[in-house]
Write a structure and sequence with these properties.
- This protein is of the alpha+beta class and 318 residues long.
- It has two domains: 235 residues, Jelly Rolls, CATH 2.60.120.650; 77 residues.
- It is built from ten helices and twelve strands.
- Strands 1, 2, 3, 4, 5, 6, 7, 8, 9, 10, 11 and 12 form a twelve-stranded mixed β-sheet that branches.
- Helix 6 packs antiparallel against helix 7 and helix 8 runs antiparallel to helix 9.
- Bound molecules: 2-oxoglutaric acid (AKG).
- The site of 2-oxoglutaric acid has 11 residues, from strand 9 and strand 12.
- The site of 2-oxoglutaric acid (AKG) has 11 residues, from strand 9 and strand 12.
Length: 318
């Protein structure tokens, strides 16, 4: 595995962000973009949070410090979560994960704004994350782009490009949790079980209050929260992505039905080369895993954008 630092850029203009990061789909840590967020100061006050959002129900997890095992406490009133998070529990840590809290509590939304609002089309509900201490998520990818905005505490992030997907052993699309790698932690990979992992490049960085990580769509990520922390994820689509999203679902359905011709037709009509490459690579891998290696090689020639061909050929050789 190679390592690479995620670049950091201060007060980028929209034009440069589009040209250097959005169009080539590269991650970047943005600084100086959200310094005016009231959330950076007012959310330090637990009483203020309870006042504006205490009754909202949020997805809540607890985990034992001894072995890291996690328990889902279900949707829990935010004020109760805050009591747990500030309880200085010696045995457990607590985590609010992916809570669309601003939908339930419009007053909270007055404390922050969206980064680059002109380009972040199709904004999905803003998601809120808050934890009492160390918590590491699983390696996965999301369909949407993400501006992960840190409000307090720190997150360390490890990212892998979609071009490294085959080295992360993604499940087939119709399996459970197809966006999650079976590699739970990039840091403790058993190379006997996952030898291809050594081909990856891991992009590392960390974000602190007032900093924003741009994670392009389909980049694999593992996020580790440290200390008492709060963050907001702003998921969004760039123009054209939404059509591809719908196609992605059709593709998954076709694969589940084993309707190969329809799948091929769908793959050939996907316009975004990265998405087309990734899904075609998954499809070819599925064909190869059923023992049809020659057919998989033929499809590699037929379907894949050029930049994907050597990756899939190398994968098929193993
Ligand atoms: O902050 C976290 O714990 C996870 C963030 C994440 O995975 C995401 O925004 O997709």
């Amino acid at each position: 595995m190679e390592k690479q630092a995620i670049p950091r850029q201060h007060q980028l203009t929209e034009d440069i962000f589009i040209k250097e990061y959005l169009e080539p789909q590269r991650p970047v840590i943005l600084t100086g973009m959200i310094d005016d967020w009231r959330a950076l100061t007012s959310w330090q006050d637990v009483n203020h949070l309870k006042e504006v959002a205490g009754t909202a129900k949020v997805p809540f997890l607890t985990s034992f410090k001894s072995d890291g095992s996690e328990e889902d406490m279900g949707d829990t009133p935010f004020s109760e979560c805050l009591d747990y998070i500030f309880s200085d529990d010696e045995e457990k840590t607590y985590y609010i994960h992916e809570a669309p809290i601003a939908l339930q509590c419009p007053h909270l939304a007055e404390d922050f704004h969206i980064v680059f609002p002109q380009i972040s089309h199709d904004v999905l509900p803003l998601m809120f994350w808050m934890g009492s201490g160390y918590r590491v998520g699983n390696v996965h990818w999301d369909y949407s782009h993400n501006f992960l905005c840190q409000v307090s505490g720190k997150k360390t992030v490890h990212l892998f490009s979609p071009f490294d997907s085959l080295w992360l052993y993604p499940p087939n699309p119709h399996e459970d949790r197809p966006h999650y790698s079976p590699i739970d932690s990039y840091a403790e990979v058993d190379l006997n079980t996952y030898p291809l992992f050594k081909n990856t490049t891991c992009w590392e960085g960390s974000i602190e209050p007032g900093e924003v990580l741009f994670m392009p769509s389909m980049w694999w990520h593992q996020v580790c929260s440290e200390g008492r922390s709060m963050a907001i994820s702003h998921f969004w689509h760039s123009p054209g992505m939404w059509d591809d999203h719908r196609r992605l679902h059709r593709y998954v359905e076709h694969l589940a039905d084993d309707a190969r011709d329809a799948t091929l037709e769908t793959l050939e009509t996907i316009v975004a080369p990265r998405l087309q490459g990734l899904l075609s690579a998954f499809f070819i891998r599925l064909v190869a895993s059923e023992g049809q290696k020659d057919e998989a090689l033929r499809l590699t020639g037929q379907l894949l954008p050029n930049e994907w061909k050597p990756i899939v050929e190398q994968y098929l050789e193993v």
